[in-house]
Amino acid sequence: MAAISGGKTYHHGDLRNALICAAVGLAVEGGPERIVLREAARRVGVSPTAAYRHFEGRGELLAAVRDHARRALADSMERTAARVPGADDPALAAEARLAALCRGYVAFAVEQPGLYRSAFGAPRSEAPGPCTDPDAPAGEVRAFTLLTDALADLAATARPPRTTRPAAEAAAWSAVHGLSLLLLEGPLRRLPAQRRDDVVESTLAMVVSGTRAP
What we know:
By secondary structure, the protein is mainly α. Helix content is 63%, strand content 0%. It has nine helices and no strands. Helix 4 packs across helix 5 and helix 5 (90-111) packs across helix 9 (193-210). The termini are far apart. The relative contact order is 0.11.
């Protein structure tokens, strides 16, 4: 997807991008349920008819927002990992990167709940778009690929080196995704900030320690 530009008006020839920008704003405000093609058109100052020249319906617009949200999630993970100090021990450095990627995942969910929900959820009445094709490999989601690569690096730097545990990437993703949902919509959503941070760090420690098991 092309880079999304800000602003409430669009430049000639860039209406599709402007509509996606408006829809992303709607997602930030209220998640995927808030995304309506007519409202996106209103926000950029065009008629619904003009909007339908670029999107056949709401499902296509939701798919574009999902793509943007998933990219933003992966960017958050990479930014968090980039801030981790280097370590002389490759194994420790790999562990720190895995934990940081997971931390960036949860942080995005907490700080951008509307976008996070839009990255993985959509109203059941909508047909799956290209970002939610049930037959598409999970590696197409960059957040998942980042976790997979980090786990592979961790296995390769272990002494002695070992293969990645079967389904370790799915287990790690399940841990951070489940924690994120509990913090947003479950019983953990009312935790004070310090307690929430403790829960996050305990979960990440479990994810990392689980990779050490034979």
